[in-house]
Input
Amino acid sequence: MARKTRKRTKQTETAQGAKGLSRRALVLGPAGLLVLGGAGWWGSSAVSRTQHEHDLSRIGNGLPSVVQIHDPLCNQCTQLQRNTRKALTCFEDGSLQYVIANIRTEDGAAFANGLGLPHVTLVLMDGQGSVQDVLQGVRSREELKPAFQAFQARA
Output
């Protein structure tokens, strides 16, 4: 009789475990889908923004450009990129555009070599694509904001 009791206990535990799992699945399944969907949306928008920023054909399109000569493997370049993005948040959309010339790509290397400039550099270009100013080295957001404002006033 003890064996039947153990067997029944295992069957009951198994049935209850299956019910508990299905309840969790009912609650966590949609929540997981929301999380995955949100992560997918964020990832696709980040990729889209990155592609847009790396589009060098936007230079000379009528909008003044802040072009960063950038090496993605360089810590100083990454810091300058963060500071530049933060400084540009103060400007209205469409007043200045941020473009990245990645020196690890053919187009980015050609751009940097054509100007004879190293990475960790910002090139301020007017709407026709003419160089107006060059800022070399890592600069803080507090340094960049007034430089961008002065550039925008001239451009």
The chain has four helices and four strands. The chain has a mean pLDDT of 83.
